[in-house]
Amino acid sequence: MNWKLAFGIAITHLVTKKKQSVVAMLGVLFGISMFIVMISFMTGVNQFLEDMAMDNTPHIRIYNPVEVKDEKIISKAGTGNNSWYVVFHQRPKNDLAKIKNGLLIADKIEKMPEVRGVAPMVSSQVFFNNGPVQIPANISGIDVKKQDALFGLSGKMDDGSLDDLLKGSDDVILGKGLAQKAGVHVGDRVNVTTPEGYNITLKVVGIFSFGIVSLDDSKSYATLATVQKILQRDPSYITDINIKLNDMNKATEIKSELKAQMPGVYLEDWQEANASILAGEKIRNIMTGVVSFTLLLVAGFGIYNIMNMNIVNKMKDIAILKATGFQGNDITAIFLLESLVIGVAGGLLGLLLGFLFSYLLSITPFPAGTFFRISTFPVNFLPQHYILGVLFGFITTLFAGYFPALKASKIDPVIIIRG
Amino acid sequence: METVLKASNIVKYFNEPEPFQVLKNVSFEVGKGEFLSVVGKSGCGKSTLLYILSTMDTDFTGDLEIKGERLNGWKQNALAGFRNMHLGFVFQFHYLLPEFSALKNVMLPALKLGKYSEEEIEHRAIEKLKLVEMDEYSHKLSSKLSGGQQQRVAIARALINDPDIIMGDEPTGNLDKSNSQRVFDIFKQLARENHQTIITVTHDKDFAAGSDRIVEMQDGQIIRA
Ligand SMILES: Nc1ncnc2c1ncn2[C@@H]1O[C@H](COP(=O)(O)OP(=O)(O)OP(=O)(O)O)[C@@H](O)[C@H]1O
Ligand SMILES: [Mg+2]
After folding, report:
1. ipTM value for the complex
2. Cis peptide before A113 (omega within 30 of 0)
3. Which fold has domain B3-224?
4. A2 and B83 in contact by Cβ < 8 A?
5. What is the rounded CA–CA span in Å between residue B73 and residue B45?
6. pTM (whole model) above 0.80
7. Which residue's alpha carbon is nearest to atom 18 within ligand 1?
8. Residues of B in contact with A320 (CB under 8 A)
9. Separation of alpha carbons A162 and A149, rounded Å
10. Range of the domain at A361
């Protein structure tokens, strides 16, 4: 087959029917550009949320959960005449949330090659007292250096400084929302009550915000020693070990490895911790897929219709070409090339327009309020989306053009020429 | 004389609107370099016969042999290739591709054949256009040409691949006396000098009278060969 000849004829057809060609091209153009904007924005949102969550989420967390034993209240024991009934206590035991040998375990894990860092933590519920009002919150005793290295805490500081925690004892930093509710600023003192009823006054040396309301409203950090003191525990008392890996995708694998080594503790990987975010991501991905598919389908139908119309208008020409020796596949090639030119031109222009829209969106201020650490719409610019865009445009037009082109190739010249 | 085309017992029916036999056992032969005219009343089946001879209409019974090849049962694509190489056709209603220039219209079958380079094809196309005195219009869009001019371009197109047989369905139908004469002279010359075979359907008495042989049809049959 002579592709060059077919291409020449296709181009002539397109150029003589400029308006029609442009309309068909606009369909693809808008389809692809919307696809680019959609996917860039949606993946941008996904990434933003994931980053924001992952900033504060360890890849693996080791802790001792407070469990309700899933046992029957009453059960039979022994055999035959020698049996008796056991009545169980359903309430959780006042077990310590302590991880046995926590610091030792942390040291051991830190030496694993896949592990980027380990931060031990003592966590507890407390009340911050603002006059007579008690504000429920969570206080975490952290190894300031390690915590900062893993979670970039110093970058989240709105006011004061993370390092000030190290300078004295009885210092605390509060989440932005929590500080507001407690009515304190940097330099103020705040009264804290532990679950055991112990009271202590801490000095606020900093205010941070993660950009996640639920955290900023409830979190506070102090040194390990301070929190151990508040809780009246010894310096080996650790409730959480937070682990960051070099490759977060290995979390599940390493979790099972650790679990085998330490049967007594509970481990949670980031997928479990962020299940809701991952679910949201899935939904957004499906949405992007559905909308993109619809857009491309509409563009495809546009091309299909226009090519069909085109072929009806060109019946005579097709008959002439066949009469003078053009074969069925030459005709298919001509009309297929027409759709592909429309598809590729529309697709490339669509990428350009899509990029432009995405760019404009990425510099548009995002009305996030004060809680989100974000100033403009989150938009991704990934080459693979653009490649996908042209590929989709190409495939859609290939399909949309193929059937009309096939129909064209089957036209019987005699019927047309006889008139 | 060497036979280039042989039709035997051609029978053709049209089924719409009602079954109707257009061609009834048509048999005849045409020799190489022969200039043949087919005449007959309007509606007697001349065009129908010509489409069958041109290999475009394959819906018939009987045998068709061109250049020693029996063409019955050939695939459409093979027939298209055969037409491209061996047959030139001038339709009853001048059929050019309206988006293309006169020159390009003439060139297309040759570009399809791909025997010569594009420059050579263009050169040859201009030669053919000169033959029908259309070379000065070669770059004009074919849809901007008059009916007679289009018909002459169509003749040039039929000649471009130096076919063995040139078929014309009233090729001078749209031409004035002097242009008809010119087409006649060209056909005569092609038959004499290049030994190309000419089969034309015509209503022009003078045109027919000047050709080598007249085949007269009536009601789907040949009554004089
Ligand atoms: N597609 C068709 N379906 C049914 N009948 C047809 C069809 N085409 C032609 N006919 C009929 O077949 C007969 C022969 O038609 P044809 O076109 O071969 O005539 P013709 O001899 O070329 O006439 P003219 O000199 O007017 O061109 C006519 O009676 C015509 O009505
Ligand atoms: Mg006719």
Report:
1. 0.92
2. no
3. Rossmann fold (3.40.50)
4. no
5. 23
6. no
7. B45
8. 95-97
9. 12
10. 3-54+277-418
